[in-house]
UniProtKB/TrEMBL annotation, chain A:
InterPro entries associated with the record: Aceto_COase_bsu/gsu
Name of this chain's protein: Acetone carboxylase gamma subunit
GO terms for MF: acetone carboxylase activity
Keyword flag Ligase: yes
EC number: 6.4.1.6
Organism: Sulfoacidibacillus ferrooxidans
Highest rank taxon of the organism: Bacteria
Keywords from the UniProt entry: Ligase
Gene: acxC
Taxonomic path: Bacteria, Bacillati, Bacillota, Bacilli, Bacillales
Pfam family name, one: Acetone_carb_G
From TrEMBL, chain B:
Species the sequence originates in: Sulfoacidibacillus ferrooxidans
Presence of keyword Amino-acid biosynthesis: no
EC number(s) reported in the record: 6.4.1.6
Domain Hydantoinase B/oxoprolinase: 34-615
Name this polypeptide is given: Acetone carboxylase alpha subunit
Amino acid sequence: MEVTKEQIKRMGSMLDGCMSSKELFQVIADEKDPHAFDVLITYVQGKVAWTEPILLPLTDHLMIVAKETGKQRQAIVKCTCGHEFTEYRVNWKVQANVYVRRSEESFQELYPQGMHATEGWHEIREYYCPGCFALLDVEAVPPGYPPVFDALPDLQTFYRDWLMRSLPVDPHEFEDFTTQYIADNFAQREV
Amino acid sequence: MADSLRDLLNENVQRTEESGYYAGLRTLSLRNQDPFRWEEAVTKLVAAAVAAREVAVHIAASPLTRSLGETCFALYTPDGDAVALSTGIIVHVHTMSEDIKTMIGDGYESFPGIRDGDIFSNNDPMLGNVHTTDIHTILPIFYHGELVGWSGGVTHQVDIGGITPGHDIVAATSRYEDGLYMTNEKIGEQDRLYPHYLLRSRQGVRTPLYYDLDEKARISGSEMIKRNVIAFIEEYGLDFYHQISREVIEFSRRNFLARSRERLVPGRFRAVSFADTPFAKEAWQPQAKRDILHHLPIEVNVRPDGSLKVDYEGNSGYGAFAWNTALSSVLGALWVVLTQMLGYGEVVNEGFNLGLETYRPKGTWLNNNEVYDLSRQTPWFLTIPIYTGLYRNLQRSFFGRGYIEEGTAGYGLSADATQGGMVLSGLTGEPQQMYAPITTFEISSVGFGANPVRDGLDHGYAMFNPEADMGDVEDWERLQVGLRYLSRRLKPDTAGYGRRRGGSGFETMGLLYGVQSATVFSVNMGQVFPNAGNAGGYPAYSAYTLHAHGTDIVERFAKQQEYPRGDHPDHPEIDDHLVASQIDRLPYATYYPRSFADGDLVYMKYTGGSGYGDPLERSLAACEKDLQEGIYTLRVMSDVYGIVVSCDQLGNNYVDIEASQQLRHEMRQRRQSRSVPFAEFYQFERERLQSGELIGPVREMYRDLSQVGKRFWETSFLATWQLPQEFMLSWGDPS
């Protein structure tokens, strides 16, 4: 889908914060640009230093891209910096770097005293990209809580049935493989 | 003829199920014939509901209805499907519908009969409704002897006669403490209220004047809809009315699916929030004396046809607290947020409800109708936090579709509703011994969440009412005589951190003055973070409690000395500008009613919205604006945003660009040095679980999940941590 320079400029201006509140309100209130999906992809693709085609943007930094490895064409998660996570049906967090705030002291690095959760009730998990150390996600959860798999898009349905386009990756099941990945990669150490 | 409504209800359910279209309407024949006339007619029906609300708010007495618009009106089909809804608390798109369907299902048509001029009322969540404080008044609409629909109105009461004063009671632990219940009752006929109902309602609440006038507001609004529908039928004909009231529902269903397919990406989206109930110390009743951590996950599945499946698997169980709820409360709260994200600009009605499916596991706080005696007085305590997850989920889906301007990383909790009651001393001219409620509702204007293209709205959002309005201080003081506002101002460090920050919360210092005695209580999250951000944004602050007793504030006024107008725990004003015999600062923010005396202070603080994106990527220009507007203190600017502040010769603070860039660089390096690969984190958390090093409420939460959230427990918890089925047994007794 061809998108115009004006559309790309507008997308960039919204993301970078250059657009005035008045103009932004119009974007929100007006009829939606039916090409927004292609505009966002074109905009991000033009900013990154790598060439794998973006299939779906997840966040500012994380993109699902088509990756060719030998004869395999997989959809994987990739950071705008170029760091590659695993395939998109596995929660990317299992390959991130993590810093966990568990104590009052570590909460108070961020929050005024008394204006944070109570130690033991909650911890703050900060997930960083191992490539650029951008903060990719923050979880506020109790100790022992399984990492949340935020978004598992149904890529095949989206491309085939909603966009009426072919998806440039091998056919696959729409399934969450995170626990399988954990079982395969993280050895159990009994206490 | 006796049960014709029940037959109609069953027929329409069957037609919808069999055809996949509402009431079997595969084609919208009226709309196809003349779309302009169709639009004109639909607009008249919607206008009837909106006009009813606009008039009714001027009849009501309570500022909750009059100033804040805590009310809405609706028109229903004869079998109880919402056709058109007013603006306002559109929570009730489906609640009164449940009332009507329950009455039909229970054979009301045969007995006690449904006749022109009858007045029905319900406030029982088990039958419809959100909580007892929302009173429904419902009128059948007849045209030449035929029941052609229903009109209904709902207003939020100041007080409902529960175990304590208040509209969102903390201390109710069973149904018998919830207050006045109208359980799908006929409360009047021949357009008049029954005398026994008037006696019961007036004597059943602490604020009968407000109750009476709000009742009149609901009846008047519903009557307006009734008359407008009759005028509509006179103009367009009865067959046209029946047909269009069905077509507009099917039209809305199709619109919802089309909007979903236009804006979203199909797939599975997950988010979780938590709530804390600190009742080990606070509760009076033995059965309620425990601290509870509530697990509130929400999974949204955007299905290939555009419909949504909202899955509540893993939610915590019910209990001896007021936060339990029933179907219509859950759907009501779901709808009020969904219409703001996907359904705005359309006719909101039953059609939207047909565009989604919910899964609510039995035995949880949101599916427990088999347990009759639970308190369901304050379900908002859990429905408000859980739907921050709905926002976060849909924001991710909007982003994937390129609509980066849509959705948010949640919202500030509409919490800290300080409530109670006062007996006045007469000091300020009011009659001695007069009772006045404490019913603050500034929760209507908390901080909104951020999204990729904008910061959250400061102190201007309420998830339950798209027309957020905190009301005027003067209006509140007129109602809450005896609770004076010493301030209302922005509270620093309350906006969730992020590349785009959440909207800021605000604060108010309340003074009890001219009171003989007072009781005060409140609800808010304090021991958990109230929400979480998206894409690297942080949750907003957690609340706390601050009270001062036996103060010298009156002497300070006389001497024109400074007095505390807010609180920042890092440098509390209350330490510098007040002498008090007792200062209570608690780490939690939900507390049972406590006694207060003349001159005591109650601190009220309102939540901020959560952030979006990495705070170190927030533009320096935006940080400078935050600095100038007092959104954050210098410490937070430095420690969270990596901002070095310098001061010019005139004493103005500004962002030192070079030094800030250097600090941000150092902070990124620190992230690298102190974070660990996921595998290391995984082993640490897993070993901690195995050794049982968890506090009681967390252990209890997991134990509860193994009972009422088995799918979550097995496929998410046990599978993630590679733990055996019998794992919980190794933890022993939770006490």
